[in-house]
């Protein structure tokens, strides 16, 4: 109908669309404002058009996306400028959804292999919520946005990075060791400017203490980190993300597992914090679930009583899968194990995948890393990532459904999942791979 039509002039080209189509952009978008009476945008009196001073070629593609829900990029059109135009119109999320589907381990394609600019091996990779990532590299952290464009490198004044994680798409928090001059500890950075936003402090009896920050995790409002100090600063600290102020501290004595944790994971459905102290940080493995509200332990597991047996298995990594009420572990032989989260003192149900003929064979290999997305489990082994999907983890048989491998890159040192992407960091070369599920749109390669 005539009253539903909207006339636009984008960069000198005339477009006729409907209010219904522009409403598909969503509330808060620039295009939704065109039809919002509260904005009181007045069209040109002579042509009855609203003028938008942008490139009409990209607008043609984006308008078709709003009409059909499909993104079709014509040959020769650069995709990165298209994304920037989509961000201007407030419909970048629409483009992302059309470009790639939800993470499906059985349909993943390697869409990019990014070579870093630092010498030596990267030690850890972390995914951001929007599909970007960062790589810890000695005393530096290299950050990439979701287009895999490198942001300002973060230099930690020659202090090695212990862990790093995203608070948002443009904010990271970094844990380092303590130095004699008081440097180190933990701080958040703006990845666009490279500047420090907050330096997180441990305060005991009203006095700030130097400490080494180990593993970290974050919820919507807080940041958590394992802390090891010189006197009382052993345990898990909690800080407000926005203000950087310490909210609480769960104290333990020196040498206890919480302060020496090497991995932490926030579980949003249950509001629990997984804290793991594993080999080689500790001779024994300790995995604990903490209630963020009471700061008490609600679940724990350890292999302290099992060590020294002929069939000794050393847990090298762990990840909690809330949907399956299961804590998954992997040992030095790349064997997966499953522990029931619904009760304490549960035994590990091991699923055997590989058994070396001698211990030295296991020592020469790179240890497996774990990551998860919903009921999908990802486990690295040498130069491959194996995907396991199963609705019944009680059977201790994670069903392998896919193997992901590239010819280049060599052995894998770390993996991470976020923003519907799987990131794979290779040990032998300064390179990481980006895996994602292809969408239904016709898009040219941007990398």
UniProtKB/TrEMBL annotation:
Pathway terms, separated by semicolons: Protein modification; protein ubiquitination
Name of the protein in its database record: BTB domain-containing protein
Segments forming domain BTB: 4-75
Organism listed in the record: Physcomitrium patens (Spreading-leaved earth moss)
GO biological processes: protein homooligomerization
SUPFAM superfamilies: POZ domain, Quinoprotein alcohol dehydrogenase-like
Taxonomy, superkingdom: Eukaryota
Pfam family, one: BTB_2
């Amino acid at each position: 109908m005539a009253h539903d039509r909207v006339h636009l002039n984008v960069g000198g080209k005339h477009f006729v669309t409907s209010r219904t189509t522009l409403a598909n952009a969503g509330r808060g978008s620039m295009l939704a404002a065109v039809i919002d009476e509260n904005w009181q945008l007045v069209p040109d009196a002579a042509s009855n058009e609203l003028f938008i001073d942008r490139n009409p070629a990209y607008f043609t593609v984006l308008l078709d996306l709003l009409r059909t829900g499909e993104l079709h990029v014509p040959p020769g059109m650069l995709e990165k400028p298209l994304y920037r135009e989509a961000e201007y119109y407030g419909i970048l999320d629409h483009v992302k959804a059309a470009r790639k589907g939800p993470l499906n381990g059985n349909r993943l394609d390697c869409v990019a292999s990014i070579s870093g600019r630092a010498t030596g091996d990267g030690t850890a990779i972390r995914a951001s919520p929007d599909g970007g990532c960062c790589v810890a590299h000695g005393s530096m952290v290299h950050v990439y946005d979701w287009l895999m464009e490198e942001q300002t490198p973060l230099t930690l004044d020659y202090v090695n990075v212990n862990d790093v994680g995203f608070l948002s798409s443009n904010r990271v928090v970094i844990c380092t060791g303590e130095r004699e001059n008081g440097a180190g500890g933990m701080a958040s950075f703006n990845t666009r400017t490279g500047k420090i936003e907050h330096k997180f402090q441990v305060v005991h009896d009203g006095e700030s203490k130097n400490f080494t920050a180990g593993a970290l995790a974050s919820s919507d409002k807080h940041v958590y980190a394992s802390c090891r100090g010189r006197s009382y600063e052993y345990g898990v600290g909690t800080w407000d993300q926005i203000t950087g102020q310490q909210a609480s501290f769960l104290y333990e004595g020196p040498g206890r597992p919480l302060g020496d944790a090497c991995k932490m994971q926030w579980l949003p459905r249950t509001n629990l914090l997984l804290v793991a102290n594993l080999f080689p940080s500790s001779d024994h493995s300790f995995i604990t679930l903490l209630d963020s509200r009471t700061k008490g332990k609600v679940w724990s597991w350890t292999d302290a009583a099992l060590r020294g047996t002929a069939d000794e298995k050393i847990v090298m990594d762990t990840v909690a899968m809330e949907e399956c009420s299961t804590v998954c572990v992997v040992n030095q032989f790349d064997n997966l194990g499953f522990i029931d989260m619904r009760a304490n003192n549960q035994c590990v149900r091991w699923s055997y995948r590989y058994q070396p003929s001698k211990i030295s064979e296991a020592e020469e290999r790179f240890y497996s890393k774990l990551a998860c997305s919903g009921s999908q489990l990802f486990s690295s082994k040498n130069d491959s990532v194996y995907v396991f999907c199963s609705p019944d983890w009680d059977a201790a048989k994670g069903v392998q459904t896919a193997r992901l491998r590239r010819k280049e890159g060599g052995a894998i040192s770390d993996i991470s999942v976020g923003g519907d992407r799987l990131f794979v960091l290779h040990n032998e070369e300064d390179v990481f791979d980006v895996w994602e599920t292809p969408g239904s749109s016709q898009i040219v390669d941007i990398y």
